[in-house]
Amino acid sequence: MARHLTSNAHGARMHSMVLALLGASVLLSATSLSLAGSRKIRFQNKTGQDVNDLHVETKQGVTITSKSPFTRDSGVSGGSKHDFSDGTVAKEPVGGPPNEAVIEFDSGSPDITIKKDGWWWTKDGDRVGDKHSDTGGAVLSCAGGQAFGDGLVYVSIDHREGFFQTQRGATPELTTQMFADFCSSFFDVVNEMPLIQCTPLDPRQLELLGNVLGNPETALQIQIVHPDGGQSLELLPIDTGIELAIQGTCPGRISAIVTNAVPGSPVILAYSLNDRSGTPVPGCAGVQFSLRNATIVGQVPADLNGTAIFRGNVPQAACGRLKLQASEQARCVLTRVVGL
């Protein structure tokens, strides 16, 4: 792997990488990560008070397509901050289910997520209750060979539950697709919405978010009850603060962009063809990349905005196999694994 540092027009340091991976079969066609997405969320009022305003901050810019029971949104279309008003969500009735608001978001990104502590209720401009985040979320990662068929995953949300069992002989990609199909069976017919937001990150990883928020009794819960003897099923944290995104297509020139790092902190980028954990992160005792036998691309400091960018060419032989992950060294936290 050849390495050298360059600079962009804003003075941020870039890292150029050439990934020479030979003899690999192609599992994916060239893919761009600019797919659009939508998400409908039920926000349940468990504050014990009537409320007349809901404040939501998303990581992505979003457009609001419905906002029951509210009639007004003071946010900018395509923006990340939205205040919904001119409507009332009554307090939870005695012995009954919580009242709720149902908001639908559209975005140019396939991934629509709420910021940490990014939503809360207010009444006449004053906050009521705590700030909340997306709850119950995780990344399901599947790796290894063909499934033995003895893996078991428990899922519950909104007082519904079910078990997913791996299928003997299924590849990691097929197991991932089958789990996505399983999640789609959790559907709210009344509000015409999936209860679980299931977003593919790559052919072996799914981001799972609950679409019922604000109530621990109805929040999404996922548990691996029994591992599969032939495949590795892991639940990874969904938000460590920093994020890794890929711009470009495979094969070709890409940019691996790390955001939300501590400004000035060194950021390390690593890659592997195997997404099972096992490679220590340099300088972070006890922390491991979720990559086996990972190769370190290099290290660059995050700029004043907390962004570090790595650039390079990815050959056809790496498409569908290459896994990337970054580490921010100031806090020893990892991004999720991103595949090409």
How would you sum up this structure, described in words?
The structure is a single chain. The two termini are 18 Å apart. The model is unreliable at 1-35 (pLDDT under 50). A five-stranded mixed sheet has the order 1-2-27-22-21, with no helix packed on it. The chain has a five-stranded antiparallel sheet with strand order 6-7-4-9-10, with no helix packed on it. It is built from one helix and 30 strands. Strand 9 (114-123) and strand 10 form a beta hairpin. The protein has three domains: 3-31 and 249-339, Immunoglobulin-like (Sandwich), CATH 2.60.40; 37-131, Immunoglobulin-like, CATH 2.60.40; 138-236, no CATH class. It has one helix spanning 172-184; strands spanning 3-7, 13-18, 37-44, 53-58, 63-68, 72-73, 81-85, 100-107, 114-123, 126-132, 138-144, 152-157, 160-165, 187-188, 193-194, 196-202, 205-210, 212-213, 221-226, 231-236, 243-248, 252-259, 266-272, 279-280, 288-289, 295-301, 308-314, 323-328, 333-334, 338-339. The protein is mainly beta and 340 residues long.
